[in-house]
């Protein structure tokens, strides 16, 4: 009889580990209160899928995610993936910043085994909790041989997403997560199917010891330049603009950002729309010429990539052509 694969579950908290005194409520609860041992005990079907080993890396509401926790999580991924008998790793996480953690791990972890993130939109005590099935499906995907070599994956609501593409697009629905190009595949019961293979990301390197300060500003009707000027004065290394439409920036904000770029701050144009590619102008204006396109990355994923790129090579801040190439490769 073949032995079941060994899967390691790394828990970080979030709604999947949330609890409420009212099972009929899925909106009012305390996140990150249920230990990973209880999450696993609530899904007895896991025993028929894999040999599970669990570790409580953290117990936080993901709105409070930090770079230090990313580094700790990356270290545990590296530790467990180096063990020859570990077939895959599952990470439980809160939904609020899952897409950012997924992007950071995807860009820094050259992992030899599948790394699958999962979460829940409803707490574990809810009458309609989605966490147990999401956890079971994530373990099924992590144990599947076709999951290898696809970078970090995200499994929610019976769908398999690429870490680079997935984003939270609804405040409360169980199908809150979407990908611009659609999911990579699906999982239903013990059936796992990949319809396509994601493009492999540019390998920036390990998690940095020190993170450059990169912030997000937005363009909207009649913005001021106070925020940009203050951030430049504070020593920010990079700015991502959540711009309108196809990366359009109000002229007042654009002037402030040009000054920021001249001062050595990397400026990246993303879109606040939630979907689509920010084009690089064929005939750039003076402001366009010093700004980098985030391609189809939303502002939050673009911030992760920009911070990692500047940590690896601070000179990119004054070289928009090379920085643009980095975004093209991601």
TrEMBL record:
<dbReference type="GO" id="GO:0004067">
    <property type="term" value="F:asparaginase activity"/>
</dbReference>
<feature type="domain" description="Asparaginase/glutaminase C-terminal">
    <location>
        <begin position="214"/>
        <end position="313"/>
    </location>
</feature>
<feature type="binding site">
    <location>
        <position position="62"/>
    </location>
    <ligand>
        <name>substrate</name>
    </ligand>
</feature>
<comment type="similarity">
    <text>Belongs to the asparaginase 1 family.</text>
</comment>
<feature type="domain" description="L-asparaginase N-terminal">
    <location>
        <begin position="6"/>
        <end position="198"/>
    </location>
</feature>
<dbReference type="InterPro" id="IPR027475">
    <property type="entry name" value="Asparaginase/glutaminase_AS2"/>
</dbReference>
<dbReference type="InterPro" id="IPR037152">
    <property type="entry name" value="L-asparaginase_N_sf"/>
</dbReference>
<dbReference type="Pfam" id="PF17763">
    <property type="entry name" value="Asparaginase_C"/>
</dbReference>
<feature type="active site">
    <location>
        <position position="95"/>
    </location>
</feature>
<keyword id="KW-0378">Hydrolase</keyword>
<dbReference type="InterPro" id="IPR036152">
    <property type="entry name" value="Asp/glu_Ase-like_sf"/>
</dbReference>
<dbReference type="InterPro" id="IPR040919">
    <property type="entry name" value="Asparaginase_C"/>
</dbReference>
<feature type="active site">
    <location>
        <position position="15"/>
    </location>
</feature>
<feature type="active site" description="O-isoaspartyl threonine intermediate">
    <location>
        <position position="15"/>
    </location>
</feature>
<dbReference type="InterPro" id="IPR027473">
    <property type="entry name" value="L-asparaginase_C"/>
</dbReference>
<dbReference type="InterPro" id="IPR027474">
    <property type="entry name" value="L-asparaginase_N"/>
</dbReference>
<dbReference type="InterPro" id="IPR006034">
    <property type="entry name" value="Asparaginase/glutaminase-like"/>
</dbReference>
<feature type="binding site">
    <location>
        <begin position="95"/>
        <end position="96"/>
    </location>
    <ligand>
        <name>substrate</name>
    </ligand>
</feature>
<dbReference type="GO" id="GO:0006528">
    <property type="term" value="P:asparagine metabolic process"/>
</dbReference>
<dbReference type="InterPro" id="IPR004550">
    <property type="entry name" value="AsnASE_II"/>
</dbReference>
<protein>
    <submittedName>
        <fullName>Asparaginase</fullName>
        <ecNumber>3.5.1.1</ecNumber>
    </submittedName>
</protein>
<dbReference type="InterPro" id="IPR020827">
    <property type="entry name" value="Asparaginase/glutaminase_AS1"/>
</dbReference>
<dbReference type="Pfam" id="PF00710">
    <property type="entry name" value="Asparaginase"/>
</dbReference>
């Amino acid at each position: 009889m073949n032995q079941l694969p060994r899967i390691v579950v790394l828990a970080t908290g979030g709604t999947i580990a949330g609890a409420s005194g009212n099972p009929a409520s899925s909106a009012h609860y305390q996140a990150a209160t249920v230990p990973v041992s209880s999450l696993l005990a609530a899904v007895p079907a896991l025993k028929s899928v894999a040999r599970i080993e669990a570790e409580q890396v953290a117990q936080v509401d993901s709105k409070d995610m930090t770079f230090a926790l990313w580094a700790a999580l990356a270290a545990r991924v590296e530790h467990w993936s180096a063990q020859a008998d570990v077939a895959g790793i599952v990470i439980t996480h809160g939904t609020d910043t899952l897409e950012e953690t997924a992007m950071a791990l995807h860009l820094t972890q050259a992992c030899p085994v599948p790394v699958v993130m999962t979460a829940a939109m409803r707490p574990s005590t809810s009458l309609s909790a989605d966490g147990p099935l999401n956890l079971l499906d994530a373990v099924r995907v992590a144990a599947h041989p076709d999951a290898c070599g696809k970078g970090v994956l995200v499994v929610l609501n019976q769908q398999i997403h690429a870490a680079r593409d997935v984003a939270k697009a609804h405040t409360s629905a169980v199908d809150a997560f979407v990908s611009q190009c659609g999911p990579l595949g699906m999982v239903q019961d013990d059936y796992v199917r990949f319809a396509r293979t994601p493009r492999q990301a540019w390998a920036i390197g390990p998690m940095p010891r020190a993170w450059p300060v990169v912030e997000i500003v937005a363009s909207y009707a009649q913005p001021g330049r106070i925020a940009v000027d203050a951030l430049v004065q504070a020593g920010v290394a990079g700015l991502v603009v959540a711009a309108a439409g196809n990366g359009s920036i109000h002229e007042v904000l654009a002037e402030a950002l040009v000054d920021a770029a001249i001062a050595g701050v990397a400026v990246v144009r993303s879109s606040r729309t939630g979907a689509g590619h920010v084009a690089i102008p064929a005939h750039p204006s003076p402001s366009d010429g010093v700004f980098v396109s985030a391609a189809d990355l939303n502002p939050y994923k673009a911030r992760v990539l920009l911070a990692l790129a500047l940590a690896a090579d601070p000179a990119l801040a004054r070289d928009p052509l090379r920085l643009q190439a980095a975004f093209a490769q991601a």
